[in-house]
Amino acid sequence: MKLSVPGRATGAAAMAIAALLTTSAIADAAPARVAAAPDIPLANVKAHLTQLQSIATANGGNRAHGRAGYKASLDYVKAKLDAAGFTTTIQQFTSSGSTGYNLIADWPGGDTNQVVMSGSHLDSVSAGAGINDNGSGSAAVLEAALAVSRAQYQPTKHLRFAWWGAEELGMVGSRYYVNSLTTANRAKISGYLNFDMIGSPNPGYFVYDDDPAIEKTFKDYFTGLGVATEIETEGDGRSDHAYFKSAGIPVGGLFTGASTRKTAAQVTKWGGTAGVAFDRCYHSSCDTTTNINDTALNRNSDALAYAVWELSE
Question: What pLDDT is recorded for position 5?
Answer without folding.
Answer: 34
